[in-house]
């Protein structure tokens, strides 16, 4: 090994390269020093920083961990490692790092960062976030970030009055803040005050420090309230200001598709794919894959390969392309290459499970499913994968998990008392809903085929008929689920006997030959389809238009059929756990079928 003076010269040279942004050259020196036997926490910390800048997050996390193994009292490194674990979807490890860092040095900035982590949708610990934020004192408790995080934590727990008070306090102290304007916009939207919501969405979008997210918020608000033309104009204007926004580009594709534009990807194709920013280029590939435009996806990937030869993003898309083409062994081989580098990446794990199911290697899929459920134990899609694995392998736990007899509940709607009969209510509801179906195509990346879906959150609309429906459905679902028995080990029954609310809602109009491919609702608890208007079909047309449960919406080497069928009838709804595979059979009729679908959420256990 070189003498200490030479080593220091190499270290200084590498650090200068690091500061200039030449991370790859810096790493060459760092790796050489490590291979020469240097074991220093500062070396490993510098290597981790370089890998992080190169977006090699798995390697970055490994070297931050090695630095901490030598010197565990580095709160800044612990915070960096927590951030990386979050990006890698390793939330329990991220939380452990935050706790250790705060045990060493509990300053206000660290408290704010940890609270923001706790309020992530995937973590969802608002009570702990509030407890953490209560440690802030004096002006630290009244900063913009502290007030907004406390408001979000209160809102996540359903404490709307406390949330509003904190937001108004933030507005008084920070009247020009873009973040405060945005938070108020979402608060008013979530509480059904569309007039104030529009005011604050517009202010946020027009703020001097506005971001693409603010423009997206305004567009989504217009879509939620049915103002399609306003949404289209706002989106077109936003793209002139933020032409490289991934969210806005995706939103443009979705909206153009739903409005019947066959060239809905042309805004990606104005440049060669190699001239697009890498993130947009891969988004374009994803759009092609979702649309089953596999030849276009192949051409785009082959063009990108020389620029991103070692990229996990590129390999992942090639794996997905292989899967879509039926080359499951090829998909598995590519996934094995990159899962080693990103063992916690949920997209890779999901694709691996699907590829193994399709290839017939059922036993090999279980470790990946277990890893997914460790990351997100309430994710309904992961439980759908688990149900499929247990069913394919003949595991008795499938019958326990998918107990159709006790978990699926077809019931009649409690008719709103202001109407004389369910028939009269359905007739008025049908008229209102048909006016809300303003698009021409089904949404992109949805289960619907051959029909249309209303935009936005249906139950946010202030129309009295919609609000009567919302109230009636809530009462019906509450009563129907009141006998559900608590089972702390079951993903659905562990939340029985809690208050319920609507997580989301929409209406679907299916036309001749329309149907839903089998799918699940990943963010729900219970889901439902309420039948408003159903066409009359011949008696010999067995199961046409019926709801089916149990048939996987993914490819399995051993085909699996539906295990329960439910006939649609006006005025009735079918309640089922959101993790259950469900879809509908096509039907032949000149009359469309009109439904209202929704997901239920439950109040968190305190």
Automatic annotation (TrEMBL):
TPR repeats: 41-74, 75-108
PROSITE patterns in the record: TPR
Keyword field contains Repeat: no
Matching Gene3D superfamilies: q2cbj1_9rhob like domain (2.60.120.620), Tetratricopeptide repeat domain (1.25.40.10)
Keyword check for Lyase: no
Name of one Pfam family that matches: TPR_19
UniProt keyword terms in alphabetical order: TPR repeat
Protein's name according to its UniProt entry: Tetratricopeptide repeat-containing 2OG-Fe(II) oxygenase
Provenance organism: Alteromonas halophila
Taxon lineage: Bacteria, Pseudomonadati, Pseudomonadota, Gammaproteobacteria, Alteromonadales
